[in-house]
Amino acid sequence: MSALIKVEGLTRVFDVSKPWLNRVIERKPRALLTAVSDVSFEIEENSVYALVGESGSGKSTIGKIMVGLVPPSKGKVEVDGVDLATEKDNAKVEAVRAEIQMIFQDPYASLNPRWRVRNIIAEPVAAKGGDTKGLAEKLLEQVGLSAADASKYPHEFSGGQRQRICIARALASNPKIIVCDEPTSALDVSVQSQVLNLMTDLREELGLTYLFISHDLTVVQHMADKIGVLYLGRLVEEAPRDRLFSAPKHPYTQMLFDAAPRMDAFGREVEPPKGEIPDAINPPPGCAFHPRCPIAIDRCRTERPLMRPIGDTRVACHRAE
Amino acid sequence: MSTPVLSVRDLVVEIPTRHGILRPVDHVSYDIHAGEILGVVGESGAGKSMTGNAVIGLLDPPARITVGQILLSGEPVHALKGEKLRRLRGKRMAMIFQDPLTSLNPLLTVGEQLEETILEHMNVSQAEARRRAVAQLEEVGIPAAEARIGSYPHEFSGGMRQRVVIALALCAEPELVIADEPTTALDVSVQAQIIALLKRLCRERGVAVMLVTHDMGVIAEAADRVAVMYAGRLAELGPVREVLTRAHHPYTAGLMASTPLASQGRKRLVQIPGAMPRLGNLPQGCAFHPRCDRAQDVCRRDPGPTLDAYRGRAACWFPLNTEEKAAT
Questions:
Q1: Which of A156, A189, A241 should we substitute to test contact with B (largest number of B Cβ atoms within 10 Å)?
Q2: d(Cα A300, Cα A254) in Å, to the nearest integer?
């Protein structure tokens, strides 16, 4: 299998400084927030690659860079061999862009309340002047709603149904890749399982590739083929699903697994993890995780660990073996 | 058996609307004893938050309690109003909300907010109130409490802010704490810290805790007993291990099976068809019957046995997993 998406040395820095005058008066330096820092990975065709991490780990920013909503500061994302940020040939960029679609977290905020469902779903095709006749109806049935729903407005649907509409819209332009940013976080458990099943079915039917962004380890474990763990904008570990869950190498991954609530852990008494995610504007030097790491040594405080392979796993930790 | 700290008896909350009367809480009964955590789970709209709000007297009109009783250590509190209710809230029962940023006053330092609550409810001097405020912040695990007591809420991180809210809830030493989705807005590692803190405070101080959440994992780890709600009614109530591993109500069983963890190794997740009905549009009989694969004629006709605090576990005509229990 070949890599459909190649992400190399991806970095995104946001300028969160105060306005110029305030900086001068208060003698404050520029504040730069590194949301994504030197992240590299590859996604194979027809696979599900999941990014997990806590809030502020940069997972959504990576998703946005991939669909072109945010340009990268450094590094590149290559889809089908085309680098979206630098490619000069507009026809190529357009072709690749149509292949990538996105599903957002909040189905209440991502559908225009004043548009009929038919227009919402057909928009990706209509925007390019394509033929949209009967398209919305066909897609609605494909995602488990009825064709008659096309003339309704979003407020007439429940959360799970709205997320189905979002999926239908994402499918409208026949994409190869769908970036799913926390697609089920806003849904109830019983509805979540319906949406996840739908996504699994569609992937098989249409040969889709998913970049699946989530903070929920159980959902990721169910959906993903390969998982990348992010911490403070850095990829700290990447491994195939079963390997990551059976043998997590990075101390942060281990901490995350231990902290996640488990349904079989009745009255579990464990020492909860220490500390919180540090400030991304002034990240700790060396390994970003060292202030919370139980096995940190002096080297971790000064030298940022590079990704290195251990078996099928890639891990950025000086002490992992 | 000692008197439970909280006793909810046959509680009904109704909201009159133009399209008829809605019942977000429909004949619900349960008890919480001192030092016990009762988990209340359900999907959004199941009435779990509404039950909590009814207990602490925070129902927004036109929602009101029409039937039933709420007893706090044996005293009826559901009919209290105005000054009497105010003396009770914050003193004998307290609430922790989901979003710590909106439940703190951004214009007052956390110290001022804590001291205000302590002075209001306890008969102590200003200096003593301050000393207690610092002690309280230390107890919930805020480092350098003495120095941070003058900070404003926005200067704290999300996890620390939720600790402040917990300190605020506990500072007048209440008997009952209602925690409404206290960890939903937090990250996994911080969530683990907050749950450990709640459990420790509950054990050490003997506070009764009503933990409202939609996360089964949180329930499994924190709660002693669990109440499962569906469409305003109590579907199942029992010890957490029993309910989660051997559910009697088909809805509980479906809920457990549809979590990705339980379906591990399967390619597709188990799913409950459909969605929870809206309150204005409840089916006749058992509210769950259109989604239930065990439903029979009686389920479509009759709403099923209501669940009393001491009798029965599941409000279902055809409960699951009961055979072995009958044998023993």
A1: A189
A2: 17
Q: Where are the domains of chain B?
A: 6-92+174-327
Distance (Å) from the C-alpha of residue B151 to the closest C-alpha of chain A? 18
Question: Which amino acid would we find at residue A219?
Answer: V
Quote the CA–CA distance of A77 and A67 in Å, as a whole number: 10
Distance separating alpha carbons of residues B4 and B251, to the nearest angstrom:
28
First to last CA, chain A: 28
Contact A228, A50 (CB under 8 A): yes
Q: How far apart are CA A180 and CA A60, in angstroms?
A: 9
Residues within 8 A of B (CB atoms), A 276-295 only: 276-277
The tens digit of pLDDT for each residue in A280-295 reads 888 888 899 998 888 8
Parallel, antiparallel, or unpaired: how do β-strands B6-17 and B64-72 relate? antiparallel
Contact (CB, 8 A) for B68 and B255: no
CA distance A27 to B220: 51
Interchain contact, A276 vs B157, CB within 8 Å: yes
Name the pLDDT band for B308 (thresholds 50, 70, 90): low
Among B190, B261, B271, beta carbon nearest to A263: B261
Report the alpha-carbon distance of residue B67 to residue B110 in Å, rounded: 39
Report the alpha-carbon distance of residue A274 to residue A260 in Å, rounded: 14
- Residue B243's nearest CA partner among B321, B324, B305, B310 is B321
Q: Across the interface, do B260 and A222 touch by the CB < 8 Å criterion?
A: yes
Whether B203 has its CB under 8 Å from any CB of chain A: the answer is no
What fold characterizes domain B6-92+174-327?
Rossmann fold (3.40.50)
- Asked if the Cβ–Cβ distance from B221 to A261 is below 8 Å, we say yes
B304 near B294, Cβ under 8 Å? no
Q: Which of A102, A97, A240 is nearest to A170 (CA)?
A: A102
- What is the structure's pLDDT at B327? 38
| Alpha helix segments (H runs only) across A116-262 | 117-126, 135-142, 159-171, 189-206, 217-223, 241-246, 251-259
Closest C-alpha among B2, B16, B5, B8 to residue B234: B8
Contacts of A298 (CB under 8 A, 6+ apart): none
Mean pLDDT of the residues in chain A: 88
The second-level CATH assignment, the architecture, of A3-224 is 3-Layer(aba) Sandwich (3.40)
